[in-house]
């Protein structure tokens, strides 16, 4: 691939998928901090190319085993490409208070790397949305045929990917970083007393606070005092925040535009965690079809755009969120099967307008239903995490039940999964090969006792 | 309208919109209970027509005032049409354990009643999703021109309605009704201690427990011992539950199919709360374009379908949810502007993977943004409650932030609401007429102090 | 149905489907002429309702016989509702040179008349696009279940209708009428020498010239000198022309807008020939799902709009065509099977960039292919004439072959009609009931000898 | 770009866009003949990559001049990549009578070559669909930003490309080739007497018969007797025919599947003429956005599939056409402006159900209308030739007028091009820069005298 041509895109961040994260031409990073220096510079209007490793930096392999998932080091995610400094045509950098409009001109897998994976973490190692039901490390490998993905581990489905970067964001200012660290620390310290969802998910960390473990800081040399300081302060990349980050919006594909607030000079744009496809919610956590890949981007700087377009929704002017524009190029499906959940949990307990509980129940309902068509529940859990299904908040006001829905496009299956009124189906239900790479769960926590539990 | 023809639909539940609820030909009801007797009977395969009042039974008027909203009696909602007993072609009724497949063949407003309303309840009278920001009773009237709705109170928008019934459900069995009442009572009694969302919404009732006040029970005569007993036990219609009910799924329009569990002999189908259009979440509570209307339905009975297709997700076999099928006939938009929210509330406090908080912030972000284009915040709140916007759970696993998004189709506006990179807009921003019927808020509760608060 | 309410639409042209054309409250007409007087008047901005008979005025029945088709009197089509005079809010009528913007707010079948028919005329009585292959009068009856149509005569298909008026147009001026009559007479007189398509369709009339036979002229009393004069001059309604008319654009459904040129004072809008659904081309001639029905319309007058927006494409300023706007509410299908045709006819003869021949071959290819799935060719011919299939001109420049395509949405079938690579199909091909009402062909003309000919 | 990896696609036909056709690693060809030997071989099931030059082999340049268009050698189009021999997994080749299912997994421009052109040929050099109106050689250059194209020569429009190969086909057998040559020669010899469209397009060749001029035959060495024989017999690539070929179906993009008949052992698949985007009809002839590019394909062999799925539509079993399947991934537009044409030509003469004439008038109407928004007519002609507009055969039975429509998605313009009812537009109409590369027309033929003629 040529690095630069007059009309093509300029490659500003190359990745060699055969090499390890530490061996790449430009250094990666896996934390948010204003002092991680930019490794590349782009001008507004130019189309440039950024390549990226998969979120694990190659730690999760293409082999048919879940051992790599079971022992994955969650402290080193996500390997990001950048930061990229953005200036206008005159070389004047983006400034705090500006908006950075980033258009996704093109994106896809790296040539020769047309594969990805979807996985469930072991319950003791982070788990996922349904970790109390599915505690065992499990993995499915997907192969791509152009726009389509298929998996030997979840036979009978094939779907076009709505490819997108899971993470795209600007660097936080020190002031914003402090806000993040303080509020997440407060949650970590006080959360156990008051939170209900964690009764269900109680082995999952409440927040992922700064940690020097496995910290990678781009050009900053490990072991230096600067590294030590930044590593102590820098925010983890796991949650989405005011700077964008891990927003996991599955429709951010070709032709989309992202309006990111700028907090530091040059904006310091970073991106990573490419997904070939993802369902709304990415429920299995490591749950999109994770892959390495490339983005072709074009930036505009909207001077003072934060004040013009974003209104702080919190105590400081920094409490803002990005805005997104989604374009006309998407796979569109004409028929959907929709599963509903209400905010009553598996124990039968009523919760008050809790959309997270309602969505959990909708996903569990969908898993149970679809598993009737020849799949294990783990297969469906992985599938609903990565196929283009839509998770909706349908009702959020009719106390006490929030109503959430999960809509699954029926065309992704090679059989008709709709309910049939006649007792005799048109054909025997297909028996699928249930062999999916999976590890034993050795933890101590009990698994939810209800009909949907994995068996 | 002829009541029956060989090829047309048979009218089984007529409504005269000029008359009051108590004056209709067939009696209405506003509670769920197995002992409310059916008032009509249909056979599988026949297309039949059900007409319905608006949810308030005409209590909310077409006049340009919000006084009727301010003093609305929330104990009498929702007026439902039915119950309708369903039998198969041989006259054998639907039985507990069956699935009732209800296809929506057609639906719309009643002739001559091509109007509706969207409203915010006063904070002291139920409020809505953002009641701490918008405490004042407010109302907008909408007029329909075929598939389109427009409002003199929210000028500059016009959109096709994705018309649907807010409520469709089967009667619960006594066993299921007891489960509902017990779990909702438990919430009401213990909720205040443990719930976080209610810190924000603390003037809203946690649940709406059975109450004889304004109770309407169809053929059951008021004042009889039977009425007294049922009124004490019957569930309110406000939340969606295992029987369907107030699920507010905005895509249940023409050509959709609903698979409802059957809990009593004959299924006892009821429906009401017609919406000309609604946004995901129906955030203003009385928040769709509420109207009277009609449904043309066709039923199938899937014998033993509950066991075949639904898996209980709780301690009893009754803990199920309906399944829905959505068809190919919808307005589809090519461009969307997407607002994001994370589970950090307006005070800056971090919550753990709370999709309700995240969605609240997404909606607040959207309101603030769109209000820059010549609207008051109340106008936008009402608009986002009733226009065909999509509320998504984008990320529910990246602790501690749930990411919710609200996607607004840009084509509903008569101006381009996308961010512009050039400082000088192509035209002056339209100054809209802010005169919207609204009452004073006389309550004692403080309004949220943040930039998005109503002024 | 109330005729008028404050917010509903005003009924300006009522139809009683139980009565004959001559017995309706307002007189119908079946010709275009400037002197047919208006029977109703509307103002710009008001939503009004026009009801209409089916194109045959009830001549084609709902009985399962094709005898009515075989002996249909083609000289009396199409019964139109109108003319309607349009004025602005001040009562000033539309004037020649204006554009009349007509929005279709709503439309559908008449209550109790939820059925329609699709038919092939006998070759001796008008035939259709493929009359040399299918010379026998044939009819299928369709029933509507809300938005869906199904037919006992073409089992295994069901589709949502994109309902539209086949005919909508303004009255021609005398000058325009003279142009029509002259050019069509010239064709009739000189055509046989030079036209190639008619070698194939040689029993079809080349044009349908004015004729007093079965002429119906609204308020003009039959037998008067005025009637005689108009009947001699008035244009038949069969072809679409500069005034709109029988344009058969299948996407003119709810939310569409039609910009019609105005040739006479008041515009004199007429409409009729309602179609529940139609495929591009309406190949069977009587080929949509023909029905009675209603339109709810709203008009605007764009003063001097013809000059502003239309450019004459011919020797006079009257040689213009209407413009149409199509809205977002349509059934959309995700998968299509596409059949191709090139401008080589069934005898193997090459034609020069002839899109009509190419489309004919595409339709014949589709008929042959789909008939492999358990249908007779006549059934498929009728189906492709009325289902929402798309007829495209794909290539019109690559001499000598025009390439036309016919795209059929696969979701309308209850079986998978795509080619399968494995020899053993997933199930036996369904054997459909071929009993479709059909008459014998008694004509003298030979039927095309090729594999697709009806047998 | 790696040529082969375990999971990526294997590059079987490489192109270096910096080199001339004769300098490529594998030889190209520009004729159809059974004896052009395959240059590569693939197995069913494998994903392979084929690169291709633009149709002119680099003859048309990226420079802002139309001189290259004016003097283009039309006898050398189109440079194709292939033939590719296809075998099954056991190495047994495709055989005559099989169907070759070719899935388009992916496609796009070559890296570094993100540009294309759209052009009008000089009337004396081939012209186009509207050559009598637009006789001058004209060219627009387009640049790609990911999925979007924009042109400095047609400012104010930008649209996502529905990229597709203009040509994909199998080699004809000698028997089929003879049929082609005979029928096209007959047309050439007898056509002038009987054809009407050519009265209008009379400087265009009726057919493009075999010619040794500029003939390129892959591995066959020029000057050998074999070369001479093949060059005399081989069919030109300009029209689409029974083998697929230049079908110019604009929706054959990612995820599509093409079922091609096999006429020779190995199928001998060739492809070329990549289009970044094209409108239905490709009216300007050199009218798509022409570019070099790549395809990633996957083949299946359906043994005896011709008999199973294709029915000959002519005197021999070879008179068949391919079938196509179109997938769910397309840009979809919600609003369209539709222009209509009827089969009356610019002189006012009536033609009988002639869809080509009707489409011509629809295109002319669209050109005139859109040119009111600041464009020259040539700019619009080029635009409608290459943007994703849809050309439909709306009515083909209402004698004497065929009705064709051209639907243009309004979202491709940066201004609202819909008719406005108020006289004062919301802003001044944009004055576009009319500087588009164009040559003088020096021919002798008169240009059509009507209001739409180029000035």
UniProtKB/TrEMBL annotation, chains A, B, C, D:
Superkingdom assignment: Eukaryota
Matches recorded under Pfam families: FmdA_AmdA
GO molecular function: hydrolase activity, acting on carbon-nitrogen (but not peptide) bonds, in linear amides
InterPro entries according to UniProt: FmdA_AmdA, FormamaseFmdA
Residue ranges, annotated region (Disordered): 1-31
Database matches in PANTHER family: FORMAMIDASE, FORMAMIDASE C869.04-RELATED
Name of the featured protein: OLC1v1011481C1
Source organism (scientific name): Oldenlandia corymbosa var. corymbosa
């Amino acid at each position: 691939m040529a690095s630069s041509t007059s009309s093509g895109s300029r490659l500003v961040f190359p990745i060699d998928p055969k090499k390890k994260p530490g061996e790449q031409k430009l250094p990666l990073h896996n934390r948010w901090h204003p002092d991680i220096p930019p490794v590349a510079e782009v001008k507004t209007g130019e189309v440039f190319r950024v390549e990226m490793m998969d979120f694990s930096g190659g730690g999760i392999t293409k082999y048919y085993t879940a051992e790599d998932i079971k022992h994955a080091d969650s402290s080193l995610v996500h390997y990001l490409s950048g930061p990229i400094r953005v200036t206008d045509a005159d070389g004047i950098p983006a400034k705090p208070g500006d908006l950075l409009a980033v258009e996704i001109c093109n994106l896809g897998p790296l040539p020769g790397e047309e594969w990805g994976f979807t996985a469930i973490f072991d319950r003791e190692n982070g788990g996922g949305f349904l970790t109390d039901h599915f505690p065992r490390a499990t993995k499915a490998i997907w192969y791509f045929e152009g726009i389509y993905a298929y998996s030997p581990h979840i036979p009978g489905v094939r779907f076009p990917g709505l490819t997108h970067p899971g993470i795209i964001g600007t660097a936080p200012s020190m002031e914003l970083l402090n806000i993040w660290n303080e509020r997440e620390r407060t949650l970590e310290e006080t959360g156990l007393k008051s939170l209900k969802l964690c009764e269900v998910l109680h082995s999952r960390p409440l927040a992922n606070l700064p940690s020097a473990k496995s910290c990678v800081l781009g050009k900053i040399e490990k072991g230096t005092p600067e590294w030590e300081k930044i590593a102590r302060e820098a925010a983890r990349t796991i949650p989405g925040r005011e700077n964008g980050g891990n927003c996991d919006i599955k429709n951010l594909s070709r032709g989309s535009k992202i309006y990111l607030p700028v907090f530091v000079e040059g904006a310091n744009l970073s991106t990573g965690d490419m997904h070939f496809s993802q369902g709304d919610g990415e429920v299995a956590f490591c749950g999109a079809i994770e892959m390495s890949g490339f983005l072709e981007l074009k930036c505009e700087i909207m001077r003072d755009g934060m004040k013009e377009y974003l209104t702080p929704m919190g105590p400081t002017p920094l409490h803002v969120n990005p805005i997104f524009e989604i374009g006309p190029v998407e796979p569109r499906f004409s028929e959907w099967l929709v599963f509903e959940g209400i905010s009553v949990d598996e124990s039968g307990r009523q919760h008050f307008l809790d959309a997270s509980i309602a969505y959990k129940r909708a996903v569990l309902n969908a898993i149970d239903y679809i598993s009737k068509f020849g799949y294990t529940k783990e297969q469906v859990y992985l599938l609903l995490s990565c196929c283009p299904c839509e998770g909706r908040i349908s009702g959020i006001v009719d106390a006490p039940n929030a109503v959430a829905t999960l809509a699954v496009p029926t065309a992704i299956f090679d059989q008709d999964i709709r309910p049939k009124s006649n007792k005799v189906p048109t054909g025997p239900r297909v028996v699928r090969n249930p062999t999916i790479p999976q590890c034993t769960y050795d933890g101590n926590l009990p698994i939810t006792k209800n009909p949907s539990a994995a068996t």
